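To assess whether ligand presence alters the predicted conformation, the chain was also submitted together with CA2. Input:
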Amino acid sequence: MKFVHVLNGPNLNLLGTREPATYGTLTLADIEARLTARCASEGIALSFRQSNHEGDLVGWIQEAGAKGEPVILNAGAYTHTSIAIYDAIRGSGAKVIEVHLSNVHAREDFRHHSTISAVAAGVILGFGALSYDLALDALISQSKTTKS
Ligand code: CA2
């Protein structure tokens, strides 16, 4: 694996400023710094982005899929609603690991369903910022053990 995309959806730019009991105290920049360091030590280039707009996420997923580059995706609330993101993953063939900071199954009913999980290669949730590190670990491990 030479390149990985980390894509973050709506409101994740607020991380570290509010709701620390649910989402922890790290900012998105803190998470990016940790992943950047791990990627650097593995010789992997990282693109880390956030948008509050569904179409941006759709475009970035298509871009990653076209290049055959894997994606770690926290789609935020679009996780629970977005057929467009489902279609982008399915249509582009992007390999996507779905991540969440919180354990969505222990929260409101409307967070229990993900439109993305069915087309994700895997799902990691409930470990706070560590969910992102675990997803990166999974991609690195797979890329070292799987022929491509
Ligand atoms: O647990 C997650 O990672 C979520 O994807 C976060 C989304 C939520 O809609 C999903 O159900 C689960 C919300 C991100 C909003 O993040 C905030 C962070 C700090 C303050 C306010 C919102």
